[in-house]
Design goal:
By secondary structure, the protein is mostly helical. It is 46% helix and 1% strand.
Length: 438
């Protein structure tokens, strides 16, 4: 399979897209007084060239200014204060972090990336064959847990394709991304574009795309059912399919519709392509239900799909919520790409770390999504001395990360909304909810 995909994509010895990792924009180009307009979602120039270099659209945005402010305090500690302030401007720049990461961590090896795809696909079909062969209620629950995790692993590899960290070959990224994501009912380009928006606006109350906080006014305007399903387990862990269709409260649009507010006019063809691929996979599942029977398709695919959705919602939520200390969200002049990215969290998943391609090593990924997943751990270790207290060491997991369920439950009880006012805000708790601490 790998040989076919590579040959179809015309893979040749690849030139480096970047001779060196992107460097900070010079201060001569952007003086310290320049900032992004706070009311606009950051969007780089997205004109689509004939060769469709999607990788260029999803790395650290070139238009973000990396400002060295005179008022920055060492390690986020203001004069006269004894405690670390996570909302204070950091004493380092994005370029400082980049410079600490070894150059080889930025190198993308398409053969290595494809080896992970082959590994995961073999495991997926192997698990399905074993479960179908034994076909008993002792094996099925084990299969559902394992296969749901493997579907999630396939998503992570498709996620790397969307970021361009899979390879420097845009065609290879697109082919593999569509095969992987369509197989688990994810519209590749629709998701890729909205995920790009998430990375470029993370930590911004209004402009972030995934798991962003609701303002108190918006939170109070929600009907009771919507409010409770957003923060009452297990409903938030089943949110992803609904997000793809309807987005989050307060936002409109669909990942399947080319005219959605999520997309620019020159991205319509990409969105249509991905929606067609999604539809083809849905049709294949319907066809298989006539051949194998709907119950068998449910057991082999449907239940593992639900497990995948729960993995995705759990992981993405915990990378941005649930720390023992409150973490800030920003508006207006206080937001920057760096400060927003520094509120992400690394998580340890025990044995699952390798299975889902170290996606728990999330801080450096959020700041530099062009780094391949197999280099994230080394890049993180190199960056820690620069990050200092802005890096929060994850709690070590047992072989299976059951402790994370407690973190989700705790966060859902207290992280409900943020103030309608203020440029640095923190989650607040709705005391009217049953079980919420006042």
């Amino acid at each position: 399979m790998a040989t076919w995909v590579l040959s179809e994509c015309g893979l040749r010895p690849l030139p480096r897209l970047y001779s060196n990792p992107r460097t900070r924009i010079s201060s001569s180009s952007f003086p310290n007084s320049v900032r992004l307009a706070p009311s606009k979602i950051f969007r780089p120039n997205l004109s689509v060239s004939r060769d469709r270099r999607w990788a260029l659209k999803v790395s650290a945005p070139v238009g973000v200014q990396f400002i060295e402010e005179d008022e920055q305090k060492v390690n986020g500690i203001n004069a006269g204060e004894s405690e670390f302030n996570p909302g204070a401007p950091p004493p380092f720049t994005l370029a400082d972090i980049r410079a600490a990461i070894p150059k080889h961590c930025w190198v993308k090896n398409p053969w290595k990336s494809m080896s992970y795809v082959v590994r995961d696909v073999v495991v997926v079909f192997g698990l399905a064959a074993v479960a179908a062969y034994f076909n008993n209620m002792v094996v099925w629950p084990l299969y559902w847990a394992a296969q749901g995790t493997m579907f999630w692993a396939l998503f992570v590899l498709g996620h790397d394709c969307g970021h361009g960290s899979f390879s420097n070959n845009a065609k290879l990224n697109s082919v593999v991304g569509h095969l992987l994501h369509s197989s688990i009912l994810v519209p590749y380009h629709g998701w890729r574009i909205s995920h790009r928006t998430h990375h470029q606006n993370h930590g911004h109350v209004e402009n972030d795309e995934s798991w962003h906080p609701l303002s108190e006014k918006l939170y109070r305007s929600l009907d009771t059912v919507t409010r409770l399903t957003r923060i009452t387990l297990p409903f938030p862990l089943l949110a992803y399919p609904f997000y793809l269709w309807l987005r989050s409260p307060g936002k409109k649009g669909s990942h399947y519709h080319p005219d959605s507010d999520l997309f620019l006019p020159n991205e319509k063809k990409d969105v249509i392509t991905s929606t067609v691929c999604w539809t083809a996979m849905a049709a294949l599942l319907v066809g298989l239900s006539f051949v194998m029977g709907p119950l068998q398709v449910l057991k082999l695919y449907g239940i593992p799909y639900v497990g995948f959705v729960m993995w995705l919602d759990l992981v993405t939520y915990l990378h941005h919520h649930g720390h023992e200390d409150k973490l800030p969200w920003y508006r207006g002049k206080e937001w920057s790409y760096l400060r927003g990215g520094l509120t992400t969290l690394d998580r340890d998943y025990g044995w699952i770390n390798n299975i889902h391609h170290d996606i728990g090593t999330h801080v450096i990924h959020h700041l530099f999504p062009q780094i391949p997943h197999y280099n994230l751990i080394e890049a993180t270790e190199a960056a820690k001395p620069v990050l200092g207290k802005y890096y929060r060491e994850p709690k070590k997991s047992w072989p299976l990360p059951f402790h994370l369920l407690g973190l989700v439950a705790s966060s859902m009880k207290k992280d409900h909304y943020v103030s309608d006012e203020g440029d640095v805000v923190y989650y607040q708790t709705d005391p009217e909810l049953s079980g919420a601490s006042k």
